[in-house]
């Protein structure tokens, strides 16, 4: 579901270029850990988050660990219409060594379509990320992430029906300082005007560049295909940066620019990811 919540970058991935430096056999020592028997902090994999770029990370939060990913502010504009999301969050809980659950909450949104102004709570997503390989090894990694969206919004802020989809994120290294992320996604979204569900397809690619141990930048392309919509194809260009201010604490900022189709002309966001 790539309308208000997804396009507002409520839960965009962080530093997908990061690939854990642990050995290939490390995962076997962690398989017994769960939410109730947490992975020791000394065995945590390198931090990876699902922001700030749109391409999701295939790496999960270690069992028993928690991760908060939040935008300070997220602003979008298209012509006279504009939208501001205040403190949207993605809260993650590590369930086991290869699985986490995520709660994506949009506590307050201000939307102005140029005629009317609306504000209130947005919709809520529940996502389950399952890493299939590469979680604790060098090289590439792949995960599956089904999600469901609940219509918790009011005042015409979000959807009126339950929606959902499936996300397939992949990451690999190009060189010691360059990483590549790819993502395919299928969404089931509700068309309120036609009172029916429609399929939406998403494909993304991102290149991440490690400038030094703390600073990274990325360049991303996003394509969205809506076979049943008037604007069948949408393309977006994204650029941004991440900066590690402390262990397990990363600041980020970025821009998205709509190139074609039904996308915001401009989107600015800045936020933080914290693991504990």
How is the topology of this model organized?
Blueprint: H1 4-7, E1 66-78, E2 81-86, E3 89-96, E4 99-105, E5 108-112, E6 117-120, E7 124-133, E8 141-150, E9 163-175, E10 178-191, E11 196-210, E12 215-225, E13 233-246, E14 249-260, E15 266-275
Antiparallel strand pairs: 1-2, 1-3, 1-15, 2-5, 3-4, 4-7, 5-6, 7-8, 8-9, 9-10, 10-11, 11-12, 12-13, 13-14, 14-15
User: What is the CATH homology-level superfamily?
Assistant: monomeric porin ompg
The CATH architecture assignment turns out to be Beta Barrel
Order of neighbouring strands in the sheet with most strands: 1-3-4-7-8-9-10-11-12-13-14-15
What spatial form do the alpha-carbon principal axes imply? globular
Radius of gyration: 18 Å
Q: What are the defining features of this structure?
A:
1 helix; Porin; 55% strand; 1% helix; single chain; globular; mainly beta; twelve-stranded antiparallel beta barrel; 276 residues; disordered N terminus; 15 strands
Describe this structure in words.
- The chain is mainly β and 276 residues long.
- It has one domain: Porin.
- 1% of the residues lie in helices and 55% in strands.
- It has one helix and 15 strands; from the N terminus they run H-E-E-E-E-E-E-E-E-E-E-E-E-E-E-E.
- It has one helix at 4-7, and strands at residues 66-78, 81-86, 89-96, 99-105, 108-112, 117-120, 124-133, 141-150, 163-175, 178-191, 196-210, 215-225, 233-246, 249-260, 266-275.
- The chain has a twelve-stranded antiparallel β-barrel with strand order 1-3-4-7-8-9-10-11-12-13-14-15.
- Strand 7 (124-133) and strand 8 form a beta hairpin.
- The longest helix is centred in the N-terminal third of the chain and has 4 residues, at 4-7.
- It is globular.
């Amino acid at each position: 579901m790539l309308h208000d919540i997804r396009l507002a970058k409520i839960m965009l991935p962080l530093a997908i270029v990061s690939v854990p430096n642990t050995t290939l056999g490390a995962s076997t020592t962690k398989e017994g850990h769960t939410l109730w028997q947490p992975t020791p902090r000394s065995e945590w994999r390198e931090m990876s988050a699902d922001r700030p770029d749109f391409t999701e990370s295939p790496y999960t939060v270690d069992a028993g660990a928690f991760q908060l990913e939040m935008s300070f502010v997220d602003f979008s504009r298209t012509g006279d219409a504009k939208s501001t999301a205040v403190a949207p969050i993605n809260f993650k809980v590590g369930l086991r060594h290869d699985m986490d659950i995520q709660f994506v909450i949009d506590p307050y949104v201000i939307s102005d379509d140029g005629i009317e102004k609306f504000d209130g709570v947005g919709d809520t997503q529940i996502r389950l990320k399952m890493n299939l390989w590469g979680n604790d090894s060098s090289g590439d990694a792949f995960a599956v992430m089904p999600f469901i969206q609940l219509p918790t919004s009011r005042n015409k802020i979000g959807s009126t029906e339950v929606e959902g989809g499936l996300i397939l994120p992949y990451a690999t290294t190009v060189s010691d300082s360059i990483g590549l992320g790819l993502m395919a996604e299928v969404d089931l979204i509700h068309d309120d005007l036609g009172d029916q569900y429609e399929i939406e397809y998403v494909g993304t690619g991102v290149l991440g560049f490690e400038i030094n141990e703390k600073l990274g930048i990325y360049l991303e392309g996003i394509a969205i295909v809506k076979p049943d919509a008037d604007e069948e194809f949408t393309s977006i260009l994204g650029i941004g940066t991440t900066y590690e201010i402390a262990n397990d604490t990363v600041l980020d900022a970025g821009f998205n620019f709509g190139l074609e189709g039904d996308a915001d002309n401009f989107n600015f966001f800045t936020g933080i990811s914290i693991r504990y």
